[in-house]
Amino acid sequence: MVAKFSSYCLSLLLVACSVLQVTCSRAWGAEEASALYFDTQRTFADRAADLVARMTLEEKVAQLQNDAPAIERLNVPKYEWWNEALHGVARAGSATVFPQAIGLAATFDANFMHTVATAISDEGRVKYQDFSQRGERNRYQGLTFWSPNVNIFRDPRWGRGQETYGEDPYLTSRMGVAFVKGLQGDDAKYHKSDATAKHFAVHSGPEFNRHEFNAQPSERDLYETYLPAFKALVQEGKVASVMGAYNRVNGESASASTRLLKDVLRTQWGFTGYVVSDCDSIEDIYLGHKIVKTAEEAAALGIKNGMDLNCGKTYGALTQAVKKKLITEAEIDQALTRLMLTRFRLGMFDAPEQIPWNKLPASTNQSTAHHQLARTAAQKSIVLLKNSGVLPLKKDLKSIAVIGPTADETIALLGNYYGTPALPVTILKGIQKAVSPHTQVYFARGADLVEGRQEPRAAPVIESRYLRPSKNSTENGLTGEYFRGKNLAGKPVLTRTDRTLAFRWDRNSPTDELRARGEIAAEASLDKDNFSVRWSGQLIPPISGEYEISLSANDGARLTLNKKQLINTWQPTDRLLSHSAKITLAAGKAVDIQLDYFEDTRDAEIRLAWRLPGAKSPLDEALELAAKAETIVFVGGLTSEVEGEEMKVNYPGFNGGDRTDLHLPKPQQQLLEALHALGKPIVLVLTGGGALAVDWAQQNIPAILMAWYPGEAGGTALADILFGDVSPSGRLPITIYSGSTQLPDFQDYSMQGRTYRYFSGDALYPFGHGLSFTQFNYSRLNVDKTRLSTKNPVQLSLDIKNTGKVAATEIVQLYIRPLKPATNDAIKQLRGFNSTQLKPGEEKTLQFNLNGFDDFAYYDEKQRVFAVKPGDYEIQIGASSTDIRLRKIIRIRR
């Protein structure tokens, strides 16, 4: 038996074995060397079936779980199926971070989405090659990416809606198909990476009870709202994988649903790829939903109903399930063959030189071109909600005050499921870089993000001038000793002086940069997880009085001053938490300081800060600075630390990652109103993953922008728009309501009263809304026929002209509205959009095509088919769902 090979060497050897079988037989034995699955001239399907046939039952069962172990006797390397790439390669260390998915949807540009996805898959490929050549095959280091999320953002209270492409099935379909094609590549033989359409299906909150919740949509809502994007990704995008959801759908577990996985996905749509469970959703079948009583029954139900791969451990019970005759080995073989076919298609058993994607250079990851692409993406995603003449600002203002809790927060750029950006530019930094060198930029947070939360980054970091490694040292900072393992044991791998203690390594190691620059050897580096650090030295207080020391850490930390332990949080955590203690110190009298920290898994961050005696309150500090400025830019909203996926968050207005109140959090609203009272021009910039009901601001603040989570270049892009270098072009992929009182119950999955398609009230900002720094004139709408049958296409054309003074992009939108809608009909539906850039005075002719059946059809619940109602329909062309510029009536006959 040979030793375990690296991916690169193994791949070369596999190819050599297809030719040099004598040599291989000496290493592996004749049977393995002549195996069909080594033969690169055979189809991937034949090779996959042959490989599965050679496995034992126990080996097969292990391969059906996300952390699939190596099978050394068959030379199958270990593979971890769980990888993320929602808006950049995520959780795998350094990678370009593009705007969050909801921001990418706001571009209304499917071609651009394809470009972004291509950049993401390029980085995914080169990172996979690097990991494989180093023998690393862990989570987030593979090519099977569990993106995109094409669930419908049906209700703005869902905290995970930020991962989606908004509330509209058509927009979601177009953006999703483009993303899938960019991720999987265009080679006729090999996939660049695999995309996964998730979460199938009918999954959009609530988060707190998702492991037991039963979504009950009507048949019409199911087929018209919740399924269309998945169908498009399967049939048009040829998506490699589909992920099941946690919840039940009309009583069946979405991860073991006969109807969804067998009848709809496989039979109706012809899906031939593999299906993966959301993590531990198979476990939910018996523990959460209680559909069956045991793990064996749950695992068997999953396989029988089409769930091929289990993210989790429940499929470990399949061996016993076979013995109990709950399932056959042949059924297991069918699921596993789909998985192995995927690995062959990704080139995991072929020589690297055979795979075109391996020609990408390592410098592709976080390249300058990709950073610029992230900047362009952010520019295109930012939505100008209101402008009463304040924007664009002048770069030579004498002074500007940037106020707000998300202004200088890297996390406000990232959203969830993100990588580690090399050069993140916060909104504050973007403004500072954009203005004249003579402009004074003031900054203050001014308020907490939400009520009742101890802000991890609110207090100022202790500056290096107040720290020294030892009593007689002339250096500034503390001595940092970096250890393998979580117990500060053994000899430090690295010892250095750290000037301040404000580190955010995310999924990277503290030694990654040193290793990349060649300053340390690989054997002297730390892993990304499971390390610890001890900082020691002296703290020199500048003034006498009571200090508030703040320690924020993701995972365990403890702080000691003069051998007295002030803070001890020596336990793992799943997010950044802050703790503080008060202590009286004397000016100039040094005290010994020791800070211990350990990193368990995933994100790594540590921050040591303080508030000096007599320091002003955050509100007073903000108002004092704002009073000295000509203009105020307030940057607030949300971060993914309070909205997201199943979170331990329960602040006023928030519940488990979801929101119970759509308004700006109370501390921020109070600060905004206090700033407004100063009588200065204010620009409100909102960060977040969904709707914020800023009704007071709409009435009182002259300019408002929605920046979403804009990615690593978000601050630069926002400054580009604030100061007029770029005209905003983003459009809302969601409806922003005046408050949750305008909506039905959150847990009701009926679409009536939700989204622009069914909401008949007055929205604060409608779907598709977004302003520009110029004006556009729409004219000459032509339709090639006004009477048609369901078999005929409709061709439309119109002219659009930039009548303003600056170059800009306009998002032209096409809607269809039935003139005599039935009770359950949508009010109108998006059926086309076009992103068009025009110079001042430039005019273009745009064309749209409509299908006489697909674009007009509804789901007939009685007949269980799609059908078209004869009658009159209005074709609407406009700049939003309510800003309609051109109209034309057409009649459909049977």
Strand content: 15-25%
Low-confidence stretches: 1-31
Mean pLDDT: 94
**Count of distinct strands:** 37
Radius of gyration: 29 Å
Q: Provide a count of the helices.
A: 24
Helix content: 25-40%
Cα end-to-end separation: 70 Å
Structure classification = alpha+beta
How does the major sheet shape up? 7 strands, antiparallel
Shape: globular
Description:
There is one protein chain. The chain is α+β, with helices and mostly antiparallel strands and 894 residues long. Helices cover 25% and strands 23% of the residues. The protein contains 24 helices and 37 strands. Strands 12, 13, 14, 16, 18, 19 and 21 form a 7-stranded antiparallel beta sheet that branches. A 6-stranded mixed beta sheet has the order 9-27-26-23-10-11, sandwiched between helices. Strands 29-37-36-31-32 form a 5-stranded mixed beta sheet, with no helix packed on it.
Give the gist of this structure.
The chain has 894 residues and is an alpha+beta fold. The chain is built from 24 helices and 37 strands.
What attributes characterize this protein structure?
alpha+beta, 6-stranded mixed sheet, 7-stranded antiparallel sheet, 894 residues, 24 helices
How are the SSEs placed, and which strands pair?
Elements: H1 7-19, H2 21-28, H3 30-33, H4 44-53, H5 57-63, E1 67-68, E2 79-80, H6 101-105, H7 110-133, H8 169-184, E3 196-200, E4 214-215, H9 219-226, H10 228-235, E5 241-244, E6 248-249, E7 252-253, H11 258-268, E8 274-276, H12 281-287, H13 295-304, H14 318-323, H15 329-345, H16 368-381, E9 383-387, E10 399-403, H17 411-414, H18 427-434, E11 440-444, E12 467-468, E13 478-484, E14 494-498, E15 502-504, H19 512-516, E16 531-539, E17 545-554, E18 557-561, E19 564-569, E20 577-585, E21 591-599, E22 605-611, H20 618-627, E23 631-637, E24 654-655, E25 658-659, H21 666-676, E26 682-687, H22 695-700, E27 703-708, H23 714-722, H24 755-758, E28 776-783, E29 787-788, E30 793-802, E31 808-818, E32 829-838, E33 843-851, E34 858-860, E35 865-867, E36 871-878, E37 884-892
Parallel strand pairs: 3-5, 4-6, 5-8, 10-11, 10-23, 23-26, 26-27, 29-37
Antiparallel strand pairs: 1-2, 6-7, 9-27, 12-16, 13-14, 13-16, 15-22, 16-21, 17-20, 17-22, 18-19, 18-21, 24-25, 28-30, 30-33, 31-32, 31-36, 34-35, 36-37
Helix pairs in contact: 1-2, 4-15, 5-15, 7-8, 8-10, 12-13, 16-23, 18-23
